[in-house]
Structures are given as C-alpha cells and as structure tokens.
Write a structure and sequence with these properties.
By secondary structure, this protein is α+β, with helices and mostly antiparallel strands. The strands form 3 sheets. It has a 5-stranded mixed sheet. It has a 5-stranded antiparallel sheet with strand order 3-2-5-6-10. Strands 11-12 form a two-stranded antiparallel ribbon. It is globular, with a radius of gyration of 26 Å.
C-alpha cells in the first residue's frame, strides 16, 4: 500500500476491535481470512463502506473448525466498533459493550494499535465490484433478524401443519394395493387437483419412494430470527385466470415472475443487490440456502424474454455482476460447473439466445458479447449456434395409446 493511501485509511478508516478471541481462531473480513495469534485484537484502517466480518471457532485439541458465522456492517469514517468473544458459547457475545468501555479503548488506542491487523487493501477494488448494489439497508433487510449469518442454522421442531413437505398415506386396503403397485412399478406419476371420483383421483393417492422418505424426516425449521430473509421467488408463474395458452407462455417466459419480485423491492436494482448478497453468503458464509437462492435468481433472470427489453439496466448489471462472481469462484466449484455443464451453463445459453433473438443493442449487447467471449476463454463453454434448439428441448412425439387403460 502506498503511503498516501495508508495515511488516509489510518485517519479516515474504521476500526473493528474483537476482544478475547482465542488463539488460532479463524477470523476474516470480506474475502480474506487468517488464524489469529495470541495478541490479536481486531482490524484497523477499514475503508468506509459495507464489509463482511466472519469467524469460526477452532478446537485446541483436535483442530476441528466450527461452521462459519459472521455479519455484514457498513463502516462509516472513523467508526470504532467493539465486540467481545464469549468463551462459553465459542461465539461472538450478544452483550452490548458500554460506551464507557468503548471510550477507554479509544483513549488507549496508541497501545491497542499494535495489536490490530491492517485491512488487506489489495482486495478492496475487487470487493467493491462484488458489493456494488448492496446497500446497508438491503443487507439489514436480507440478513437474519439476529444479525448473524450462519453456515449451520439452528433448527427446531415444527408441527405437521407448518411443514412444507411430506405426505400422509392412508392405511386403507386401496392405498396398500397402490403401494404394492408402486413397488412393482416405481416410476409412477401423481396428478395435481384430480376430479373427485375419477381414476386420476385414485392415482393421486399413489406416493413416490422419495415422498415416503421425506415423510420420515424429522419435522425441523430454522429457529426464529436465524434464517436469511430472501425475497420469495413466486410459486405461481402466471396471473390468476390465465388460459392454457397463457400459462404455457409464462412458463417459457418468466418475465411475469420477475416483475412480481421487482415490485417487492424498494428499488428495481435491489434484485441485483440480492443476487450479490446471496453470492457472498454462500462463497464467504458457506450458506447452502444462499447458494440455492443465488442459483434460483440466475435461473429466473436467464428465463425472461419480454423483461430484457423493459429492464435493460437490471440485465446490464446482472451480466456485470455475474462475470465478477464467476471470476471469483473457487477452482473446484468452477471445475464442477465445467465438467457437468450444469444448470448455470444451460440457462446462460438460453439467456444469450434470448438476447440474440430479441436483437438487443447498445451497451447491453456489447457487454453480453464480451461476457460470452470471456466464458468461452475461461471455461471453454460453447455458445455457438444459439438460434438452434438444444437437443433436450427438441419436440418429442408421444404415443398416447400406451397410456390408455
């Protein structure tokens, strides 16, 4: 770091004091992580803005590392934030530090300074790109009510009425015979909302092996205040009263679902901020729920035809953010994507094909072309022949006679 930058950060930067942290604890800020030494007391020279502080307790005897925890915080100029370590819970203490204690630490800053590690300034420019649309208000809104983002969320029992999945199998002679049929023919289908008394109604009682396994799982849900509060992706992908033709259209073009999500935001570009927040919570916070939401947002944004014309700004920043995120993914994660050509690749190909057919122009077109070239060079993904149907999307001829009873 050059002297001018160091001087500016020393004067204007924030300070995070973390007292009582055991030696060898994993501690980090943003994309940097260390094992603490005995005299570690925190971080200094933190650039003003949003930052992600995270930590994991390490067992002295075995070296086992606990699941990661952390929180996002907007540091203001010269802010002095103090937290304590709770030895009993091996976690950050929930107790508030008194103003008197904080002032004593400030007065003793000269002696405290040598125990504070400087912020790793070499990651700052990269960090600003990854968080360009996450405001302090948005981070607070999406974080758990407790304020702590955990890789392993505390779970508690829930009632059957609250349970989102699972089935009840009626122990009647009919259901038992249906189960026997299922054993003989495991590839059975269920029918949604069958007409009462129809043969489909009887078939609907048939349950798959996966349903039965799910039904035997313990009834658990996140403890109050511990779950990430992401915007729910609409389950109904079409407006009420849609005709069959309209339903088909909305499943192929999910612009309606995207519009519903945007309407729940204070600012349209918050949808990109949520994408960035979810990415950081799984990349840094190791949250699987955040990974699933990140993936679902990519699938949604890549499945829109009409919306790409109405919300060019959203899609412009979507492409910019996604390129930055892919560049920062761990090699093993990228290797899995490349080898399996997973859903991210397929949905991006669909997105590029939509942009090609829609004749997107201007800055968005230039950025998309640049992104395609970048992905091809980095991951060897093939984005040629975008006007041709994918092999698994070609029309399938079905012989209806085989389904007649």
């Amino acid at each position: 770091m050059d002297q001018e930058t160091a001087k500016m950060l020393f004067i204007e930067g924030g300070t995070f004091v973390f007292l009582g942290v055991p030696e060898e604890t994993q501690f980090g800020i943003d994309m940097q992580c260390w094992n603490t030494e005995e005299d570690f007391r925190g971080i200094k020279m933190i650039p003003p803005g949003l930052h992600y502080i995270h930590y994991s307790a390490v067992s002295k005897g075995t070296g086992d590392v606990s699941p990661r925890s952390g929180f996002m915080h907007v540091f203001h100029q010269k802010e002095f934030l103090v937290k304590m370590w709770d030895k009993k819970s091996e976690d950050m203490s929930k107790d508030e530090i008194s103003d008197e204690s904080i002032q004593r630490l400030k007065d003793n800053l000269f002696n405290l300074d040598k125990h504070l590690a400087p912020y790793p300034y070499d990651i700052w420019e990269k960090w600003k790109l990854l968080t360009s649309h996450i405001t302090g208000e948005l981070a607070m809104k999406l974080s758990p009510e407790t304020g702590v983002i955990r890789a392993a969320v505390e779970l508690m029992s829930m009632t059957d009425a609250e349970r989102p999945r699972g089935v009840k199998v009626q122990e009647s002679s009919e259901s038992r015979s249906l189960e026997e049929n299922e054993v003989k023919s495991p590839s059975t289908d269920s029918v949604d909302d069958p007409a009462p008394g129809s043969s489909d109604a009887k078939r609907a009682k048939r349950v798959t092996r996966e349903d039965k396994e799910n039904a035997m799982l313990p009834n658990l849900k996140p403890a109050p205040g511990t779950a990430l509060r992401f915007t729910e992706i609409p389950k109904d992908k079409f407006p009420p009263g849609s005709t069959p033709e309209e339903i088909t259209k909305h499943y192929l073009d999910q612009s309606y679902s995207l519009e519903l999500m945007i309407s729940q935001q204070d600012e349209p570009l918050n949808i990109i901020g949520e994408l960035q927040f979810a990415y950081l919570c799984f990349l840094i916070g190791h949250s699987l729920d955040a990974f699933e939401h990140w993936k679902s947002l990519i699938i949604l944004l890549c499945s829109c035809d009409d919306a790409i014309q109405r919300h060019k700004s959203i899609f412009f920043h979507f492409v910019k953010s996604l390129q930055t995120q892919i560049d920062e993914m761990p090699e093993e994660f990228l290797a899995d994507i490349v080898m399996n050509k997973n859903l991210v690749y397929k949905k991006l190909r669909e997105f590029f094909r939509t942009a090609y057919i829609s004749k997107i122009d201007g800055r968005l077109c230039t950025l998309i072309e640049s992104f395609k070239v970048h992905l091809t060079e980095k991951l060897q993904w093939d984005f040629t022949e975008l006007d041709a149907d994918e092999e698994d999307e070609l029309p399938v001829i079905v012989n209806l006679e085989q389904y007649e009873e």
